[in-house]
Amino acid sequence: MSKMVKCDICEEVVSLEEGLCTNCGADLPEYYPTGINYLMSWLNGYRRPDWKLLSKSPDSDFFGYGIDAPEYPPDPLEGQYDLICDSSSHQGGMNWTRAISGGLSGGVLRATLSTKGKDTNFDRDFRNLVSSGAKHRGVYHVFFPGIDGREQADHFIDVILGLDYTLPPAIDVERIDGESKQSITGTLQGLVSRFKDRMGFYPMIYTSPGYWNYYVLTWSRWVLCPLWVAHWTSMDNPILPYSWVDWYIWQFTSQGNGASLGANSRYLDINRIVSSGGGGGGDCPDPEFPKSIPVETSITVSGITKSYFGDIYLQEK
């Protein structure tokens, strides 16, 4: 008989067997497969691999890590960018005063999941992030590809509306949940469109090139969403998903020293962001809030209508 646990998000008592709440779909914090089992669960679509868990597993040497995995290496681009973390209830609550004194300039916090889930630490952690005087403050939503995208957007917006964030609200796009490319793309388009309709600007998208290039189909409006790219590497530049030519935030390691940076977890994801706001260059959308919104226009010539969003060509009708 499988172990039963209480979900942190919806508070339903569910089976631990699948690692996800069968009621709301949230991660169950007690589900921590290790080693090769963890890698296989990632390949099968559960989640991205997490080296801090692999490093603790009995077979961690398979991946080149010993029991005491190294902390993240010295930043080769130190001084060119601000450093920020991203966090959720898995970090057990953040001490933002310690995080800022430890060298971070802020963070991006998980706010919502699916259409009902809310991170149990979000209200407290975001309030403390603001009171710490952090320069960069962001929020994100975990995208569930099998759930109505417009309803997910409404849930996210209802939770974050009126909050004092300084970065574009982000959509965390990394789940598969057995959905097809067409389904994942359509649901995400619905979420992004609904967010734009209600908020007046496009959300940021967090994803990895491996996920995006395989599971998300082309759409002319992806480029209007600032990119938060996940590529853990010591290289000077990340590999980008096909829809973008530049990044806004770059998550470059999962090996941040959690204890010294105010987390109650051993490790912490660390991101680079240009100190003036965001972006690795000049091709990402304007980071200012409130931001000026390009006007969508249409021009009809010889019966063919061409639509533009600012200077970006959208479609022919």
Description:
The chain has about 325 residues and is of the alpha/beta class. It has 2 domains: about 5-65, no CATH class; about 80-275, TIM Barrel (Alpha-Beta Barrel). About 20% of the residues lie in helices and about 25% in strands. It is built from 7 helices and 14 strands. It has helices at about 35-45, 50-55, 95-100, 120-130, 150-160, 180-200, 210-215, and strands at about 5, 15, 80-85, 105-115, 115-120, 135-140, 170, 205, 225-230, 250-255, 265-275, 295-300, 305-310, 310-315. The chain has an 8-stranded mixed barrel. Helix 7 links the parallel strand 8 and strand 9 (about 225-230). Helix 5 runs parallel beside helix 6.
Strand order of the largest sheet: 3-4-6-7-8-9-10-11
Distance between the termini: 57 Å
Number of domains: 2
Question: What is the CATH C-level name of the largest domain?
Answer: Alpha Beta
Class from secondary-structure proportions: alpha/beta
In round numbers, the mean pLDDT is 74
Unreliable runs, pLDDT <50, ≥5 residues? 30-74, 280-295, 309-317
Structural shape: globular
Percent range of helical residues = 10-25%
Oligomer: single chain
What percent strand?
A: 15-25%
Q: How many distinct beta strands?
A: 14
Instruction: Give me the number of helical elements.
Output: 7
CATH architecture of the largest domain: Alpha-Beta Barrel
Assign the CATH topology of the largest domain: TIM Barrel
Which sequence of SSEs, written as H and E, runs from N to C? EEHHEHEEHEHEHEHEEEEEE
Radius of gyration: 20 Å
Biggest sheet record: 8 strands, mixed, barrel
CATH 4th-level superfamily of the largest domain: Glycosidases
